[in-house]
Amino acid sequence: MNVVGLISGGKDSLYNLVCCSKDGHNITALAHLIPLKKQNSFMYQSAGFELIPSIAKCMEIPLIQHQIKKPVNVDDLTYTYNSNDEVEDLYELLQEAKSKFPNINAVSCGAIISNYQKNRLEHVCKRLNLQILTYLWGKNQKELLQNMIRDDLNAIIVKIASFGLKKSHVGKTIKEMYNYLELMSEKYGLNICGEGGEYETITLDCSLYKYKIIIEEYEIIQHTYDVICPVFLLKPLKWKLEKKL
Question: Within the chain, what is the greatest distance between any pair of CA atoms?
Answer without folding.
Answer: 51
